[in-house]
Amino acid sequence: ASSITLRREMLDIVRAKLHGPTSVDDISWPSIAPATPRSIPLRDDAGCTLTRQYWVKVQQNHMLDADHPGIYRPIKNLPTEWRVASLHLSQDRDSLFLVQHHNATDPLVLKLPMNRQNRREGEEDLFTLSTALQELQNIVSCSNAATQRARHVSGHDEKVTWWTERKELDGRMRRLVENIENHWLGGCKGFLRCSNSIPDRDALGAALEKVFREHLICSQDRTTFSGTLDDHVINAFTSLPISCRDEDLEDLVQFAVDCYQINEAPVIGDEVDADQVVCQLREIQKEMLKPHSKEASSKQHLFLILDKNLQGFPWEVLPHLRGHSISRIPSLSFLRDRLLALGELTSPSNMTVDATRTAYILNPSGDLISTQTMFETWLGGHQGWNGIKNRSPSTEEVKQGLATSNLMLYFGHGGAEQYIRSINIKQLPRCAVTMLWGCSSGMLQDQGDFDPSGTPYAYMIAGCPSLVANLWDVTDKDIDRLAMDLFKKTGLHPPDDPSREPVNISQALAESRSVCQLRYLNGAAPVVYGMPVQFTSSP
């Protein structure tokens, strides 16, 4: 049921693209009923024909989900290195549903009570959703206020006070994401990203089976119980980093107990000696698991589907996920759209974009002097790159840049909403890969019971393959430093190390966060929506 409102809007927009403009505007409620065809013929050339065929298939994809909302459709043709996971809040708001989607098979659904670790430790201070949201909102609010007054800070004492406040907020953001990982995900965080390779899976399974049978199954039933350890427990164990906390392994033990109970195994229950089990699991980790090499890790990618209550958190910088390729998508339907654009390709290396057709908007308001100084020479030095600098673009110029280029770079305030309305973006026949480096360009507005709205979803509806945008306000020097490092890592800018191979946009962003002085307050703000595209240049 994820992104129902967005799906309806998507269908209405696609009908407008295929049959001509309808009465679509920013305040009307989109209808799910098929519109009467009012076909406007497209030019009869190969490009337009392919574009029309693509949007027809997109419409069929979303209509299938709309007509059969209760039927799960597994993803097909998902590259083996890619993982898809959904995080949803339970109706009573005290548990997370973690859904791991698989290639052409049914998903794994885990219900994770948010306060389970507090209960085990007997702690009274619970790390609830409301607690986390309140802390996030307070951090972002204080950060935004400090960012807005940055240009007015003068004098040594004022600067010291300003930086002290910023560093304190950076520390609070770091502790927030650590608490989210430790309290909410715990021993199940490995389902988001696998940390290790397994030289001998059969031997590992046998070792875990022996430990859990010895400590979790009632002594009088061990010889007669014929059940085996659930594969999901083995997967959870192998996915945890070897350096994980003892509490994560204790959480895994409880997960194993739950799996045994589901299969009606005679478990001991509260009498389990968790400390002893954890010690033996540590030994198995050291003996039988091998951390993924940097090369193997760089090929992995995680697509995150976040419900409306969770999308504001910077999940990408959780300790277990930080430094790894991650992007957000509104729903499985939108992922299918992007996979459809790939055609029959099943290798992540084939998701490439020709960056010789690039448009840019640099300092349109005229007050981002340091940003213009950093990027002006580089942007102007590319043959075939067309841009606007130091002046406001017209709506038509922005539309043309998005519709006719392969890459759009925006270095200005916000997400360029002051230059182009969201409806104009949504109705584009095609949309370039876009990077919006302005403050809060990637923030989604809460709409109560309905799906959130905002600039990122306008680009997703337009068919944008990949969007980089900021969840909250950032300071220009830190985000400029991050952007330049990302350009070098993706190959758009000559790298500092010529021997280094370019990486995809999501991996580059993950690695570039560390160049910020405030690695969480500024470094965690940019996120990727869409696909992990790579850039190439035609000879």
TrEMBL record:
It is an enzyme of class 3 (hydrolase). GO terms for cellular component: cytoplasm; mitotic spindle; mitotic spindle pole body; nucleus. It comes from the Eukaryota. InterPro entries: Peptidase_C50, SEPARIN_core_dom. Keywords: Chromosome partition, Hydrolase. GO terms for molecular function: cysteine-type endopeptidase activity. One of its GO terms (biological process) is meiotic chromosome separation. Pfam families: Separin_C (PF03568). PROSITE patterns: SEPARIN (PS51700). It catalyses: All bonds known to be hydrolyzed by this endopeptidase have arginine in P1 and an acidic residue in P4. P6 is often occupied by an acidic residue or by a hydroxy-amino-acid residue, the phosphorylation of which enhances cleavage. The keyword Phosphoprotein does not apply. Residues 355-450 form the Peptidase C50 domain. Its EC number is 3.4.22.49. This is separase.
